[in-house]
Amino acid sequence: MYTQIAIFAPLVGSLIAGVARPFIGRHAAIGGSIAFMLVCAVAGVLAQLGGVQAPLHLANWISVGGFNPDWAIRQDELSLAMVAMVSVISMLIHVYSIGYMAHDENAPRFFAYMSLFTFAMLMLVTANNLLQLFFGWEGVGLVSYLLINYWYDRDAANAAAIKAFIVNRVGDLAFAAGIALIYVVFGTISFDGIFAAVAAHTGQGYTLFGTTFPVLEVIAVLLFIGAMGKSAQLLLHTWLPDAMEGPTPISALIHAATMVAAGVFMIVRMSPLMDAAPGTLELITIVGATTAFFAGTVGCVQNDIKRIIAYSTCSQLGYMFLAVGLGAYPVAMFHLIDHAFFKALLFLSAGSVIHAMSDEQDIRLMGGIARKLPVTWLMMLIGSLALAGIPPFAGYYSKDAILSAAFAAHTPIAMYGWYLGVFTAGLTAFYIARLFLLTFHGQSRAPKHVQEHVHESPLVMLVPLIGLSAGAVGAGFLLKNDFIGGNYIHFWGSSIDVTANSPMGLLESIPSWAAAAPLAIGIFGFAVAFLFYMVAPAIPAALAQNFGWLYRFLLNKWYFDELYDWLFVRPALRLAKFAWRFGDEQVIDGVPNGLAALTSDASTQTVKLQTGSIALYAFVMLVGLLAFLSLFLWVR
Amino acid sequence: MNVAGFPILSVITYLPLLGVAYLALLRGEEVAVARQARHAALAISLLTLALGVYVWTKFDPTQAGYQFVESVAWFPGLNIKYSLGVDGISLFLVLLTLVLTPIAILASASIVKRARSFFAALLLLETMTTGMFAATDFLLFYVFFEAVLLPMYLIIGVWGGEKRIYAAVKFFLFTLAGSLFMLLALIWLWHNAGTTDIVTLLHTAIPAQAQIWIFAAFLASFGVKAAVWPLHTWLPDAYGEAPIPGTIMLAAVLSKMGAYGFLRFAVPMLPSASAAAAPLMFALGVVAVIYISLVALAQTDMKRLIAYSSVAHMGVIIIGIFTFTVEGIEGALFQMLSHGVVIAGLFVCAGVILSRGEGLALSRLGGLAARMPAYAALLMLFTLANMGLPGTSGFIGEILVIVGAMKVNFWVSVLGAAGMVLGCAYMLVMVRAVLFDKFSHPELAHLPDLKAREYAMLVPLAALTLWLGVYPASFTHMFDASVASLVQAHTAALSSHSALAMVTQK
Fold it and tell me: A184 to chain B: which residues are within 8 Å by CB?
């Protein structure tokens, strides 16, 4: 009951803000959206407290042959945890947006999109079959596109939005193929039906590229490619930093807290199947750890405040996949929830800074504003400490648990994850400290007129920040016992499948030096950043000078965009032109046009005759038809 | 004689002719006549639609065979009858025709020149198309199939754009050439079975050797109509040059004739040839999806881009039909309906721009979302449906075809689904050029948003798009039985065939 209210309230709010706007005016439109979001958040929390219930069947969706996914609401532990998180964070960001979008004349459209997003995201997490999950999946992708493109008269926003949609669709293509293959193999796409039959299909093979693979591995890889697109993992990550063209509340809600975590959620949701695909799990660990490292390195040299946080998100999602690959799904979920709070906090604080700095986003043009923005400063500090994994903030518990799991598993691939993960912990501390120090401390480097206008944000923006900061401070130690501690088996129930050989039971039993390593490296990262940007600012400049190639390599994000442009985008466009101009117009049309050329003399005359000749043609056709018919009757 | 108690299908088919007769009587000043003609045509087409909806409500979804059957001897000596009927496969194609004709008429507001003849041609087109989908005698089908050409040819040739003569002649040559082969096949089939009754033909065995030739003949005629690559090049010219209402009828309804032909004749009558040709058809379908999508990406004109997108979707339909699975064929059927609704919506949207005196060159548009929010929202909806976004009609057909194809072959499924990515690319490029960015020239800032007449076209189409997408069961439910029996018959025919082959091998 509560879950239903939580899901459909935002849809109503979205319709009010979007469709009814011309009739009720701006304030009522925004107010309606906010009111229904409050309902959603309350219902979402109540649903979580109410506990597990049987799936709720809403309506039949498709029913063709054996393919019959329904509209239904799944209310197990995993779904309810996500419902509570999504509805609360979304509500806070809605409230924040009242202040942030106050001067935007199209704000109701913004709220309509945000509420629609919340609806789609909740449909995703409460899906009872893969197709409804896919509905939510594509729905959030759509709203992400619409919101990146919110300021649609900007070139960069358009390009980024299209890129986001297309890159995601590449992943979705694999996801859809995975769903189809699941249906072919299992005869159903409902979660319970799939999970019950996993054991029966473990030995089954599937032939691709002339080789036979275990069919469950093929399915798992296809699903993971889908997750890579949505969660911006390496190779399909290029859209996420560009997505920062959207308004900042969107970056917080969609591109940090909820949508990008959907890939992690989906893989965790499919955990019974994933456990039967050990090869894919290893692949997930490698991709996750590599992404965490890659994005961490790039984050260290970027200058746009939102892009640094975006790369950080990419990196943290990599950590989550690292945990997923180890089979430590509860740990991944723990980091997912913690991350949602502190990353949303970081983005909204950044939004507050951008707001104060007259829309400046380059941290090289900030500095020295700590005194003028005391609340924002404190919020950003909390978010940074949580991200860097400093106790007792949230990130410390969840990120350390991921690395502990990697060390405890101790396979070569898990250790690859551990080494990269620990190193990345240092990078994380460094880049977030760099961002923090350059933004708030030192001398102000902003132009004079900007400096004069620096002001703290209004209360309506600060209150949501404080709400999120409570999560960034408390979520770690408050949730630890339930999510990954002694109570985790009871807390997650049967919604997550944890196998006996997963490192879940060994989190506390690793050597103390290994347990302390991430924190020590993190503090070292802080120290380096303090040295570089407070004590001796000449060092980073000198490093950039002396290691120019490395600096440029990182600054250009490992040249992925250039590579893809050269490898896919340009050839596709060239091929498109070629197919049209040469293939269609020259080759295929050549034949009929050759025939037509025979009548071209006639056609120059038809221009004169025009409609007269048309009637003639029609008459000829009629005669022809009659002739055919009589021929037919005659030959009987 | 049938559930309705009178020959309702004939009434639906010929009612528009009554309208034609009325139009012929109109006299007076050109503008006034145009308005009267439009109103009369609209009234008659809405009445026809109401009868069509009645047929839907009375249709019994549990029966696989033809319903509302009516039959009178036509050429008794030849065993040829005038007979009409609908089953689950043809029911919605008839309805699609009936729904889109009034919309095409509404889209004809700007046509004043020879308006009487124009609306007469549209109504004639409705008669021919309905009759074609409802015919249960092959000869009758053939007559209607050919007769559809006439009004369409006139619509392109008289009321089309600059290159209308070229486009009309090309359309004419392509389709007529294809149809000749069908006539030969028809004669052979009649000779073989002694009748042209479709149900009897379905149950008359055809030697495997002959099946191949007949299939080739069908491929030539239906392939041209369905614009199967590489027989598609008449289509962009015809779509591009036809006036908007003509384009709507061409893209939404007439393009289904080919796919319907495959589904009605090629697959059930020629099971072994169809099975043998399936790899070829998959290849053609995949090429259509990928090659044509790329061509669409290169287009610089909104109407032509939509036209190419239409061809790309036909590829998906072809793939679905030749999977011979319930999922694939229902997906193909569903895609036919969805495509009809969505492509009509897109062309109406293009017409909205034309009616405001602007051209359709993508470089001369832009920024319309700012001043035309309702228009932007509806165009966006049809765009998303065309990309196959879940919740819209386009998704259902696409996912069913993907699933059906996956049962047959992994790569057919994945490559056939490549439209998910490529379709996303060209459609988003299109909406960006039309709705977003800045105004490419200042006059665009003064275009008014949708008018009542335009809402009357777009809102029903949008509602259908969402209805088909959210609750497709209300449609698939109606064709379940017919498709299931088709698939069953196909499987049975193939297995008896292969059993026979094994016997002869021994």
Answer: 403, 406-407
Q: Mutating which of B166, B233, B292 best tests the A interface, going by the most A Cβ atoms within 10 A?
A: B233
Tens of pLDDT, residues B44-76: 999 999 999 988 888 888 888 888 888 888 777
Residue with tokens 């003064």: B446
Q: Which residues of B440-455 are buried (b: 16+ CB within 10 A; e: fewer)?
A: eeeebeebeebeeebe
ipTM over 0.95: no
Pairing mode, if any, of strands A70-75 and A211-214?
Answer: unpaired
Contacts of B367 in chain A (CB under 8 A): 153
The answer to whether residue A596 scores a pLDDT higher than 70 is: no
Which residue on chain A is closest to B173 by alpha carbon?
A: A592
Domain ranges of chain A: 1-60+71-128, 129-555, 556-598, 602-636
d(CA B67, CA B45): 23
Q: Which pLDDT band holds residue A623 (cuts at 50, 70, 90)?
A: low
Residues of chain A with C-beta less than 8 angstroms from the C-beta of B295: 576, 579-580, 583-584
Kind and range of the H or E element at B70? strand B67-75
Q: Which of A63, A592, A622 sits opposite B170 (nearest CB)?
A: A592
Mean pLDDT of chain A: 83
Rounded CA-CA distance B322/B405 in Å is 9
Contact B302, B365 (CB under 8 A): yes
- Tracing tokens 């950043």 back to the chain, one arrives at A529
Burial class (CB within 10 angstroms; exposed 0-12, middle 13-18, buried 19+) of A608: exposed
CB–CB of B331/B285 below 8 Å? no
Taking an 8 Å cut-off on Cβ atoms, the answer to whether A166 and B183 are in contact is: no
Whether the per-residue pLDDT at A615 is higher than 60: the answer is no
Q: Which chain B residues contact residue A62 at CB under 8 A?
A: 396, 399-400, 472-473, 476
Chain A residue with CA closest to B195: the answer is A636
pLDDT of residue A634: 53
Give the pLDDT band of residue A607 (cuts 50, 70, 90): very low
> Which of A62, A64, A148, A158 is the best substitution to test chain B (most B C-beta atoms within 10 A)?
A64
Range list of H helices, A441-537: 448-453, 459-483, 488-492, 512-530
Whether B480 has a pLDDT exceeding 50, the answer reads: yes
- Residue B435 amino acid letter: L
Phi, psi torsion values for A104, nearest 5 degrees: -95, 125
